[in-house]
Write a structure and sequence with these properties.
single chain, 173 residues, mainly beta, five-stranded antiparallel beta sheet, 3 helices, globular
């Protein structure tokens, strides 16, 4: 994660690097909300008031998700990350992450530098078609997390992990 924090600092030297997870106060659990036919919304992160976030690209993510059957979500699942500038707007897909990259890795291995390249998710904006160094989220913007194809995800499983680095800049320092 240190490498991601360094990239955040290059984009905004005033940003404070931090890790957010499904246990963070910014996360709202939307247990298996079916808002789109081919995927299920499991939750959303909302950028706090008077702040903005920078997500480095590529984005290292620590992920271990379980189904209601007490097993990992299927190997062929994809996680879809989508950005909403506000709750009333349509989400823009910014990443599709193959869960297979995480399926056989323990959480300890995902923290290990030898596996760092395995946990990087490339972010994109739909109309750009080129690599961007980071994606900014303004105050009140939302990062939605979907699982595709739909599967019932149980975030209460003790081994569940979903975390990634952000740079947070506060408007009033």
């Amino acid at each position: 994660m240190r490498e991601a924090f360094d990239r955040i600092k290059k984009v905004d030297p005033r940003a404070t690097p931090q890790i957010v997870s499904f246990n963070s106060p910014e996360f709202a659990v939307l247990m298996n909300h079916r808002s789109v036919p081919d995927r299920v919304l499991i939750g959303r992160f909302t950028v706090p008031s008077e702040a903005n976030w920078i997500l480095p690209n590529p984005l290292p993510m620590i992920i271990k998700l379980f189904s209601a059957a007490d097993t990992q979500i299927p190997l062929d699942s994809r996680l879809v990350l989508a950005k909403r500038s506000s709750l009333g707007n349509k989400p823009e897909e910014i990443a599709q992450i193959q869960y297979s990259a995480y399926f056989d890795l323990t959480v300890i291995q995902q923290y290990n530098a030898n596996f760092y390249r395995s946990i990087l998710a490339n972010l994109f904006l739909p109309n750009d078609g080129f690599q961007i160094p980071a994606i900014r989220f303004q105050e009140g913007a939302v990062l939605e997390i979907y699982v595709k194809p739909p599967v019932t995800v149980d975030l209460t499983q003790p081994d569940t992990r979903f975390m990634f680095p952000v740079g947070q800049s506060n408007y009033y320092r």
